[in-house]
Specification:
About 45% of the residues lie in helices and about 20% in strands. It has a 7-stranded mixed beta sheet. The chain is globular, with a radius of gyration of 19 Å.
């Protein structure tokens, strides 16, 4: 189980394989059965809404019980008013298709200074924003391709952030599109290829 993201949020503790998050601010409640993004744990399913599992005397505060879809055997308890961890509903199928259609237009980003560039990668990934993840993936993919063509070694730090961004994006798209996670990348390539061919036909006409 990855715990790095929880440490960064300064509001988490792990006990017996269960991660607890806490905060005091309010958010709109999710419903049981919904799929949501929960920080670095990616896509989770809301399995229940319960009372405070830590303080039984607390009769007011409600907690989500979350089941990470791609972290089998993990359980997450988090208050419904928790804003210390980024939680949001996953994209819809329509959202996913729109994002894929827009991928060719999403600009890459490049910063020459290595530490600043790495910090930018970290901050973009921590937003768990799909547009930002696509931007990072495109940037790092093209950077890897360029280095290989020049006979240079691919940097391990680049591969780390590329893998992390792909994992977050493809996990969410897998649920939204109802396809296996390992097939998301090829699905995206196919859809972009169809779009490109369609544009060529329109141009000739």
């Amino acid at each position: 189980m990855q715990f790095a993201e929880a440490k960064l949020l300064q509001g988490a503790v792990a006990t017996d394989g269960v991660i607890w998050f806490w905060d005091v601010r309010r958010r709109k409640m999710f419903e049981v059965g919904e799929f949501i993004m929960c920080g670095g744990h990616g896509v989770c399913r809301v399995t229940a809404i319960t009372g405070n599992p830590i303080d039984k005397l607390d009769k007011k505060r409600k907690y989500y019980i979350l089941e990470p879809v791609f972290e089998k055997g993990s359980t997450i308890y988090t208050p419904v008013d928790n804003e210390k961890v980024i939680m949001r509903r996953i994209m819809t199928k329509k959202d996913a298709k729109t994002l894929i259609a827009n991928i060719p237009e999403i600009e890459t980003v490049w910063i020459q200074e290595e530490k600043t560039r790495e910090q930018m990668y970290k901050e973009a990934i921590r937003t768990y924003d799909c547009h930002s993840l696509v931007r990072i993936i495109k940037t790092l993919y093209l950077r890897r391709k360029d280095r290989v063509q020049q006979g240079k070694k691919v940097l391990s730090s680049d591969e780390h952030y590329l893998k992390k961004a792909e994992e977050l994006l493809y996990s969410e798209m897998s649920i939204a599109l109802a396809i296996p996670k390992e097939k998301v990348e090829s699905y995206i390539s196919t859809e972009i290829g169809k779009s490109a061919r369609g544009n060529k036909i329109e141009t000739r006409n």
